[in-house]
Amino acid sequence: MSCASTNHKETIVLMETTMGDIRVKLYDDTPAHRDNFVKLVNQGYYDGTLFHRVINEFMIQGGDGSSKNAPAGKMLGMGDPGYTVPAEFVYPKYFHKRGALAAARQGDQVNPEKASSGSQFYIVTGKVYNPQQLDQMEHQMQMQQQQSVFQSLAAAHHKEIIAMRKARDMQGLQMLQDTLIAQMQAQIEREGKRTFTQIQREAYTTVGGTPHLDGEYTVFGEVVEGMDVVNKIQQVETGAADRPVTDVKVIKMKIVK
Question: Which residues fall within 8 angstroms of residue 27, CB to CB, at 6 or more apart?
Fold first, then answer.
């Protein structure tokens, strides 16, 4: 597929919508997402699909294949090509600034690897944050990181923990907990604490975005033209499940570069 080859500097996709045109650039260092998106665009998969979930100051979401010609009131959001795309986190280089193009996915409980939907995507609108809000978010991110690492380590000792609980071995449980906490701290030290870079802070305090999604969903491109259209879409009236009352449709997508 020549348009997704590495012979060019970037891939540009034109989204013709009922509210105007949006151009997005696909990143070359998220190649699985880039190539999959290009394949679906060339197949016409997205043509006629809806932006089925729209939340003002958050994002606009599309790419549900079952949304084509969907009657009013139909619940959408489950349609896809029948496969997922492995996560490609290039973080913190790519993050959820305003205009970021990212892949939707199922939640962690059923999708711990954070694999992306085969087709559904969203474009970030978000909002602007002040430095104090970012400090608070950073603290929450670090707490979540600790919890995630600890739970992952504890899962490897599940049978041992159950046995000690049954035996009411409180001393053993405490010793194991202390060991896991030390391992958690060592792992986080190796990986690095979750923090916002200066570039992230500058973006989130000026153009805005959705920082709480960072590191959780694959960002694989960004809007290069048509954010005014994205902004118009995010402001439409919505009904149940954040579906626009009046359909906002992708007329056609095509690779233009």
Answer: 10, 33, 34, 90, 94, 219, 220, 221, 222
Position 114 scores a pLDDT of: 93
Distances from the Cα of 14 to the Cαs of 46, 213, 251, 255, in angstroms?
Answer: 12, 25, 11, 6
Assigned token pair, 177: 């907990």
Residue 121, token pair as written in the block:
């995507």
Q: Are 11 and 34 in contact (CB under 8 A)?
A: yes
Strands (E) in the chain, as ranges, are 11-17, 20-26, 51-55, 59-62, 84-85, 100-103, 116-117, 121-124, 219-225, 250-255
pTM of the model: 0.86
Q: Is the pLDDT of residue 207 over 90?
A: yes
Of 42, 13, 48, nearest to 248 by C-alpha is: 48
